[in-house]
Amino acid sequence: MITRIKATNYRCFKSLDFVPHEGMNIIVGGNEAGKSTLLEVISLLVGGRVRGRWAADDLNPYWFNHDVVRQYFAAHKAGQNPALPEIDLEIYFSDDAPGVATLLGAHNSLRLKCPGIRMRVRPDSDHHAELEAYLAEDELPELLPTDLYQVSWHAFSGDPITRQPRGLGVALVNSNTSSTHSGVDYKLRQLLRDFVKPQESAKIALEHRTSKAKISNGILRTVNERIAKDEGSFGVSLQMDQSANSNWDTVVAPHVEETPFAMLGQGRQVATKIALAMSRSAEHTQLVLLEEPENHLSHTELQSVIEKIQTLSNGRQCFVTTHSSFVLNRLGFKSLHLMHESRIIPFDASAISADTMAYFKKQSGYDTLRLVLANRVVVVEGPSDEMIFNLAFEKVKGRSPRAAGVDVITLGTRGKRALELGKALGRKMAVLRDNDDQEPDHWRAPVSDYLEDGVREMFIGATSLGRTLEPQMIEAGNDTALRILFGLDAKDDLLKYMLSQKTEWAWRVADSEPGLVWPTYIQEAIEFIDAS
């Protein structure tokens, strides 16, 4: 299995050093955090291809980290003669991983003797003079001359690699779909071809070439004779394509239940690719890379796919990127890796109890991913609490919570679960809850292990001011303003009205934005969560 991945100066990674888990790895992060690029690095190192093309054929200036390139040209313009940027990618394997025996050596940046693969992109020494001449020019565009670079792909043994090492199986499944036969991606073709034995492949190739030759020597001969009689033909004739671009595996179209793969719906295409990757024996795919498996899938289809991933993931190492709390909850927090701004953020999974782990798996709707990705979190009990807190924050601070980098999440009375997760993530968190006729310490005691002054705190209204948000709002000094807003007179029961219209009253307050006084515990929570 993969024990370590290092990437230097590649795309968004200026310097990545990632140690994955042996089995399941779930990578989450915001957009442009580097999740897809991480899968790309693994696929590139093991298979030598990126986006279906050989690395040397796809190499372009945009492979290089933007900041590194900008810094290079700034130094070059300042006359500092800096070294040209290089890309260095490495993948380390355990000694017992299948197919890695020939990769053993110490030709890596850590000088460790272990199996592994290294890919480097460096200036080509054969083009030294051309590079010198190029760099001597004035007004250089801030693009590296990658046509004067070379890509080297070597095992840690020092031996060059020309194709994916035999026995080292990897399947990359992304959410890309195709609408034409030619759009069926390379990885899917490779996946299907793995089921064809070498002898069968040779026989299919022979019959395919024979059939093309038969057409060229048959009906096309008659056509060519007719073309030859045309004085403007200039010797042109028609022949069946015999190049590598027309090999049998590029023209055989995968079908599902007699329907061409490209004609399937988007969800069915994604589900089929994932099922194929996970259904193959671990001998063929020790490594499975799944990019956002939730894309294009209905909730029912996603449930089926996740069950298949769970059932068939044993014996292989999986890397799953996701934006779905359902995927994260079902596959488990023990497998989580947080990625932020192209870096892996430490996460202490051992700090989450087995009971809470089981809870997350059962509660697939629990919005854990928002907790994971937020920098500062406010957890409230219900929709009315969320609307009132958002409005109060905006009135007090002059900006919305989201604009201040605060995510307000409704999670019912599950504050303990949120605090436990917040501690493991190192998140700043405020939990607001009703007192329900119990003193605040009654609710704080069970979660005391997760509370920390200035980091994670629980805010609860005083029992003397009412058991829920509604009486707390009235007792804060808003009786007259709320009666006017709701069209109630002195004889009407304001509290009874608000309790019977729990979401409606809060929506009307949020929609009209009247001048109100906010309960003390809400004001304290606002100051706490907004403090640096």
UniProtKB/TrEMBL annotation:
Keywords: Endonuclease, Hydrolase, Nuclease. Coiled coil: none annotated. Pfam families: AAA_21 (PF13304), AAA_23 (PF13476), OLD-like_TOPRIM (PF20469). Residues 373-436 form the OLD protein-like TOPRIM domain. InterPro entries: ATPase_AAA_core, Bact_Antivir_Def_Nuclease, P-loop_NTPase, Rad50/SbcC_AAA, TOPRIM_OLD. Residues 5-68 form the Rad50/SbcC-type AAA domain. Residues 257-329 form the ATPase AAA-type core domain. One of its GO terms (molecular function) is endonuclease activity. CDD domains: TOPRIM_OLD. SUPFAM superfamilies: P-loop containing nucleoside triphosphate hydrolases. It comes from the Bacteria. This is ATP-dependent endonuclease.
